[in-house]
């Protein structure tokens, strides 16, 4: 999920979840609209049939994406 807390729209694409075992999953946007308007949220879904790797609580995953401002990278932690 991406939350746009700014005052301008954001165009986000090429969202990839990098798993601890080295695999990468390309995520698809829940709608055909890649824009995240100010004050809005956007959700991405795992592809149908994507492998469900065993993940541990607190484990770190890397998320990468592209935007009109350039590449983005974020480490996310699974809830404990």
Q: What does the overall shape look like?
A: globular
The domain count comes to: 1
Low-confidence stretches: none
Roughly how many Å is the radius of gyration?
13 Å
Mean pLDDT: 87
Classification by helices and strands: mainly beta
Secondary structure tally: strands: 9
Write down the secondary-structure element order. EEEEEEEEE
Question: What is the end-to-end distance?
Answer: 18 Å
State the major sheet. 5 strands, antiparallel
Helix content: under 10%
- In percent, how much strand structure appears in the residues? over 45%
The count of helical stretches stands at 0
What can you tell me about this protein's structure?
A hairpin with a 2-residue loop joins strand 8 and strand 9 (70-77). This protein has no helices and 9 strands. The mean pLDDT is 87. Strands 2, 3, 5, 8 and 9 form a 5-stranded antiparallel sheet that branches. Strands 1-6 form a two-stranded antiparallel sheet. It has strands at residues 2-3, 10-18, 24-26, 28-29, 35-36, 41-42, 44-45, 60-67, 70-77. The chain is mostly beta strands and 80 residues long. The chain has one domain (2-77). It is globular and about 35 Å long.
């Amino acid at each position: 999920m991406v939350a746009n807390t700014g005052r301008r729209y954001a165009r986000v694409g090429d969202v990839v979840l990098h798993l601890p075992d080295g695999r990468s999953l390309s995520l698809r946007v829940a709608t055909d609209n890649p824009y995240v308007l100010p004050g809005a949220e956007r959700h991405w879904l795992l592809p149908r049939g994507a492998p469900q790797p065993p993940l541990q609580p607190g484990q770190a995953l890397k998320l990468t994406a592209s935007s009109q401002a350039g590449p983005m990278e974020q480490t996310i932690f699974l809830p404990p």
